Amino acid sequence: MTRSRRVRMRRVYDPPEEADGSRVLVDRIWPRGLSKEAAALDEWCKDVAPSTGLRTWYGHDPARFEEFSRRYRTELRDEPHEAALQHLRELSRHGTLTLLTATKDSGISAAAVLREVLTH
């Protein structure tokens, strides 16, 4: 029996909710001005984040999101991305997984790409 994966995506600055399940920060850089206690994370999975080069190139430019998404999906097939992605898959098999990001527009973030990858 395959369990339906429930993968949520939220800003790390938003207060935790009971429905979050496992809260995992998926950004490479720690969120500015946020203490570890306030983040209320279960873990920080930096290895699944886009490479510094890709993140810098993208710069959260909405016009580049489609190409960013394509390049990031390619990166996710390489180590250590692949191992980190597998870890997130395992977490999602055991309950709700909430991907956390500091990005202001989470709909065009690496977390959005990850959510798509994890749920399809």
Automatic annotation (TrEMBL):
Lineage top rank: taxon: Bacteria
A matching Pfam family: DUF488-N3i
PANTHER family, alphabetized: CYTOPLASMIC PROTEIN (PTHR36849:SF1), CYTOPLASMIC PROTEIN-RELATED (PTHR36849)
Protein known as: DUF488 domain-containing protein
UniProt source species: Streptosporangium nondiastaticum
